């Protein structure tokens, strides 16, 4: 009973599995803070092993701490944009492995917007207000609004490649705008951002300046005046800021200042107006002039060349920015640029023109430039922004190796000295301008060398096809020849020998003594080696070896010994291929020899074997005759057996060897000596029985054996003397 109880408790414990607890599962972190992810192994009864990895194709950043055997922390201190990732915590408990993942998102929105251009503003002219929001991430989620009262005047959005979001708003102020408030409101729309931290705004007052206007002069009482009357002459003007009013009397060539006042109104009273020494009022004319001056309203104009806005310049070029002051006799120039203390030393001023020299243009010259001109108490400025790009060289295409049919091949396209790299786009195109691969550069602060790789598996259809690597720098305002460069490569396949062939000329069978050419051809890249061999029996002879795609050998007078198998082998570094053909040479019988064994002189009753040898193809028919007898014996192999010879068998014998090209005949003598102890035999018994027996055997098999051997010889392509049982005669 106790055993059963223990088992019932142990089984559930064995089946229980541990749990990976990763907290939090989703994080939105602010740059600069300190945060961490916690990964723990719950219900793990053994030693736990933790491993932190990245699910995305980017390195994992952070510091790992293990406060206990069952818990691990990934600490972000301080949080940076590099910590944005899909983080995976893998836990091994005993033999079991489990994992969980957490999404880590990062934002930066630490500083309030900064407004510039509001102080001073010139009335009636287009003024550019700028709102700058620094250190924003991700910047493409930032919305910038210009607000006045309840009205939204202008809206901009951030760009993904700029951490500082800059919004420009062109505003033409009126006198009523002086002292009014204008607001730049920045709102970060990044998902997960707390509501109380997603909006920042800055409000400034507009300081509008205007030259004197609506200037007027009045005389009271109006009309003509009698001598002795009291007359008041008043002068009024509108200007911001308040300037100085000067009231003068001009009489002939004399000018007398009557009143000068730092205000918008002034007057002078003549208590008893006099005509003076001149009695004829019709002869002398007195003019009263009112001059209004504003210390901030000199008619100064500033011209910036090439112009205001954004100017794009190529790195390494010479660039001159000129600033001219108009309607100012003695202007004072100031060049200003953020964090550039050397800017003054790079400028030259002469009269009303100053020039800033950037030669050669470097990446550090990419910034805003302001030309400020002071004319008396009037100060005006013009601003432009310089953008620098670098794209001096065409792409260069390189191959990782030979393009082999059916095997993966890689092309690499290198684009050097690029800036800004994040604006570079590299496309791989086929001959039909279809995009095979498109890649973009990444954010980088300096010159960068970019590389794009195209991997493909070439087939026969790729041979001779062109592939283009086109690099495009996405910069506005530049002609296409400065922003688009391309390189082209032609696919040249490498492959082992194919379509290897061997030919014999003339074709067909050949007669001995003819001229015969044997040729070998193959197709391979690169060109390899061709070897032409003759194989006869177990012997192989190299006839020709050539490092080319074609080779041949000519036999000017082909012989029967040249018959055999001819083999062509093509080989290069990618493989080999072999093909062969049979060459058959025909010749009439020749070099015939006849041998009689054991001797051509034998005793009565003995047997002899006649062996015939020759050279010919196709195999001939072999016939043995005894002239005058009329009997013919046939042998498929040139061997005859004459048995039980008698003295009457003595005489001449003739062997005739014949094929379709000719024949050869050999005559020899056989002598049969009579035995002395026996009565002379009947001459009719001397050869005819043997011949009859031999003829029956030979003639019964001759037709079949000759046909068989002829057929076998043709199949073998050569004639060989066979070693068969001699023909019995």
From TrEMBL:
Domain called Ig-like: residue spans: 12-105, 113-203, 306-387, 392-485, 497-584, 589-671
Transmembrane segments: 686-708
Disulfide bond among keywords: yes
Mode of membrane association: Single-pass membrane protein
Any one Gene Ontology molecular-function term assigned to this protein's record: integrin binding
Subcellular location field: Membrane
GO BP: cell-cell adhesion
Signal peptide start-end: 1-17
CDD domains: Ig
Name of the molecule in the record: Ig-like domain-containing protein
Native source species: Albula glossodonta (roundjaw bonefish)
